[in-house]
Design brief:
The protein has about 230 residues and is an alpha+beta fold. About 25% of the residues lie in helices and about 20% in strands. The protein has 6 helices and 11 strands. The strands form 4 sheets. A 4-stranded mixed sheet has the order 2-10-7-4. The protein has a 3-stranded antiparallel sheet with strand order 1-11-3, with no helix packed on it. Strands 5-6 form a two-stranded antiparallel ribbon.
Length: about 230
């Protein structure tokens, strides 16, 4: 963290971080907003497959995704999938969003595929590349989520599904037991304070155009708390 934007810019430069000129004002704005920064980079020779989960916890409820910094490493557009685990369904507050219902799509027998991707692409384009799709919002228990991460499956309203790597792959450590403990620490932090009887997992995704990265995403509790199935 810093109180002087120039100090942070200099630190990033001295430690090998490339901050594009159009991103420097964004960094300055976060400094002015008293944000803290977490700087991570891969060691030389490591690829993206070496990346591991990172958990950041803050005091209080602040359902904000800092999108402005995402622009530092993207091209004309970027795909983002966001899961929100909480007491009820959430939706974007300051971005447009849409839901694709069964009646909105058709099956193309010629290509042996549905028109789902075409509908999604058109609605995204119509929003100027700023809209988020509400894919699902399901009532799931802690055990179902844990099973999905530990065993690669869950049984929920949408049926049986999910895929997961072993904890030793996602949480490399000296022993498998330590890997399991690290994963459980993340799950404990994820579930903390949420009664099992009211837990909801909401999934939203987008293909944001670069223009859509001009502000941070704010999530808010939905007035409509209906379950959105994946089927």
């Amino acid at each position: 963290k810093a109180t002087d934007p120039a100090a942070l810019q200099n630190w990033l430069s001295q430690h090998g971080y490339n901050v594009p000129d159009d991103i420097k004002p964004v960094v300055d704005a976060y400094v002015a907003g008293h944000y803290d920064f977490l700087a991570l980079k891969l060691v030389p020779g490591a690829g993206v497959q070496s990346m591991r989960p990172v958990r950041v916890t803050t005091l209080g409820a602040s359902p904000v995704l800092p999108l402005r910094m995402v622009a530092a490493g993207t091209g004309a557009s970027v795909g983002i999938t966001l899961w929100v685990v909480g007491e009820g369904r959430y939706e974007p507050q300051n971005f447009p969003w849409f839901q694709i219902k069964n009646e909105d799509i058709a099956w193309n027998w010629g290509t042996n595929a549905s028109t789902y991707r075409d509908v999604r692409a058109k609605r995204t384009a119509d929003s100027g590349g700023k809209a988020w799709e509400m894919e699902s919002s399901l009532s799931l228990s802690q055990q179902q989520i844990s099973n999905a991460l530990q065993y690669g499956y869950f049984v929920g309203p949408g049926g049986v599904g999910g895929a997961a790597a072993s904890s030793t792959q996602d949480y490399p450590a000296n022993t498998p037991a330590e890997s399991d403990r690290l994963r459980q620490d993340d799950l404990d932090a994820l579930f903390k304070g949420i009664p099992d009887s009211t837990m909801r997992v909401t999934r939203v995704r987008t293909d944001l155009a670069r223009a859509g990265l001009a502000e941070d995403l704010v999530m808010t509790a939905s007035k409509d708390q209906a379950v959105i199935s994946t089927s």
